[in-house]
Amino acid sequence: MANYHGFVEYEKEFILDKDVTNDICLRLWGSYSSIQLFINGHLIHQSQNWNKDNPHTIGESPFTASIPLQFLKTDSINTIAVKSGTYSGWGGAVLFELGYVNKINRRFKQHIIKDVGVSSISLFIFIYFLFQYLLRKKEKYSLYIALSGLSVSLFIMGFFCHWYSLFNFAFSYWLLTFIGGINMYLLPIHFIHSFFNIKKGMIAKVFTVFYCTLSIFVFLEFSLTNQVFYFVKYIYIFFNLSYILVVPYLFFIGIKAIRQKLEFSKIMFIGILILGISFLLSMLSFASILRFDPPIGEGFFAMIVVFSFVLAKRFAQTHQNLETAHGDLISAANEIRELNDSLEVKVASRTRELSEKNELITESLEYAAQIQQSVLPAREEMVTLFEDYFTLWKPKGIVGGDIYWRHQHEDGFLFAVIDCTGHGVPGALLTMSVTSAMDYIVEQMNIFDPADVLFHLNNIMKGKLNQGSTDPFADDGLEIALVSCTNGMSRLHFAGSKLRLFALEKGEINEYKGSRYSIGFKRSRKDQKFEQHTIHFTEETRFFLTTDGFIEQSGGPKGFGLGWERFRKLLLESRGSMSETGSFLEKSFDDYRNEREQRDDVLVIGFTLDVD
After folding, report:
1. How crowded is residue 336: how many other Cβ atoms within 10 Å of its Cβ?
2. How far, in Å, CA of 64 to CA of 526, rounded?
3. 96-110, 246-260, 393-407 — which is least confidently predicted?
């Protein structure tokens, strides 16, 4: 739209005292358009850009016009007239004063000092808290108080036409002053909600939408038309009326904070109260009831200063709390360091003690291993029994619960692979008891038949292990594979308790399973009979006995147990002497286990027999 054209005249009448001898002056704080100034019909000032055909030109900066005494009347009424072009429906001149030159200039300087001082402090608040917000981006109230300071500065400098003194351009008044004034009302609402962490209700949201819409409207209208005609003509009245709602709303939030006993709520309410008083005085000034400039801008400035003080106090308190916490952390760190040093000394001492005890235990276990190995049949004894053989004996610890036993008599020999419950020291202790019982059966009772040996072994071990007691934890026993062979006979007798005998000949493997009953356990019956197998063999027959440690070892890509099927396959793949077969099985076991822990004691015996 084209700019709104027209003229407007202001007149002021006064009677001059008779004793006036000095020149008086007229101070015009500014104008929105070019002007002409008359005294009793005499032209005493005209804007340099005055154009009677187009009064809408750039406005006039603040100036003081002297009024010569010869143009004044001392005996009748004098008339001052200001003729101005209109701008966006607003008249031209604003805030003119009449008086002595010295008085007017002094008052002007006071206004400058006050307004520039207020604006400078507001700008300092803006810069300081904007910096604080950048450091503490989670604290949005720092941003709100910073923008509030900027809005107050823009409004103060614009409302009293100081922007015209710096920038003789309509932008300096319309855009800066209106947008500053609009946001000067909105931002404290957001600040007080954010500071007290009070959720914004519908009223706060309506204020936000309303003032943001006004700011956008003013900016767009001025950018497109270089004026704010529609805003002044249609919307400005609603903007003025909204003032009446903002201040009571701030009072409401302040009282709510006090009732909730929130920190700093009373000091914050003082700032709101100062704003309320300035708002009341401004209303009285606008109504011409009180004769002074409306202090609405100063009221907002005072409230922002109070809010800034509270915010600075909170920052100082937070800093003090952080310093206290830092001191507490340092003290705690020192205590922890001292405790750690003390613990290190104790741990070092305890470690030495444990190391010494562990060394003693290790030495004891190594000695026990020597004893256990001394019980095992020596190589010289084994070669008298078998044509060829290997032993794969890998205890889980230094000592173990898997052992092999042999007894040789005039007519032949007995050989057994034994798996006692547990491993380590408990298993090793049980093996000593079992071998003692086996020696007793064959040497004292003269029993050499495998099934009969297992029958008596079961009863002896149940007695030794006190399996008749009611103690639920005393339930130990063993599994065994026992073979016997008579000199000059090509027959092997086998009886077992859960363990098996494998016979490999000409690429075929035969499997003989022991009875499914264990020996020596509470559940083992004293009258339990064991099945006996008789196997005919040749020089090519290869026999294998194993405990479950080899079979149940976990490994492979999925961590499954090795199993009987893989074991049989390994036996079929074995080649060469029995010693080579033992090495092959050991390597296969280690490859399958890979880096996994050995689960149990491992014992595998392979042998061949002489047919003669």
Report:
1. 12
2. 131
3. 96-110
Of the candidates 495, 543, 484, 503, the one whose C-alpha atom is nearest the C-alpha of residue 519 is 495
* Rounded Cα–Cα distance for residues 219 and 239 (Å): 15
SS (H, E, C) 227-260: CCHHHHHHHHHHHHHHHHHHHHHHHHHHHHHHHC
Report which DSSP code applies to 70: G
- 425-463 b/e (C-beta count within 10 Å ≥ 16 → b): bebbbbbebbbebbeebbeeeebbebbbbbbbbbbbbbe
Mean pLDDT for the chain? 82
Question: Hey, is 104 helix, strand or coil?
Answer: helix
Residues in the chain, overall count: 612
Asked whether the predicted pLDDT for residue 536 surpasses 70, the reply is yes
CA distance 520 to 32: 116
How many other C-beta atoms can be found within 10 angstroms of the C-beta atom of residue 227? 22
**128 pLDDT higher than 80:** yes
Is residue 284 within 8 A of residue 290, CB to CB? The reply is yes
Q: Which two tokens stand for residue 448?
A: 């050499």
Type of residue found at 250: L
Report the C-alpha gap between 95 and 161 in whole angstroms. Answer: 9
pLDDT digits (tens, 9 = 90+) for 44-101: 877 666 555 554 444 555 667 777 777 777 777 888 887 776 554 444 445 567 777 7
Q: 15: Cβ–Cβ under 8 A, 6 or more apart, which residues?
A: 76, 77, 78
- The 10s digit of each residue's pLDDT in 9-44 is 667 777 777 666 666 777 766 555 667 788 888 888
Instruction: Please name each of the domains of the chain with its CATH number.
Output: 7-320 (1.20.1070), 376-608 (3.60.40.10)
Residue 40 burial (C-beta neighbours within 10 Å; 0-12, 13-18, 19+): middle
| C-alpha span between 372 and 391 (Å, rounded) | 15
Count of CA atoms in the C-beta half-sphere (13 A) of 115: 21
152-172 mean pLDDT? 68
> What does each C-alpha distance from 86 to 4, 7, 31 come to in angstroms?
7, 6, 10
CB 272 within 8 A of CB 246: no
Task: Give me the percent of the chain exceeding a pLDDT of 70.
Answer: 84
pLDDT digit string (tens) for 347-375? 878 878 877 777 776 676 666 667 767 77
Rounded alpha-carbon distances, angstroms, from residue 14 to 42, 78, 104, 579: 16, 5, 17, 136
Indicate if the pLDDT at residue 182 is higher than 60: yes
pTM over 0.70: no
- The CA-atom distances, in angstroms, between 9 and each of 82, 93, 233 are 5, 9, 19
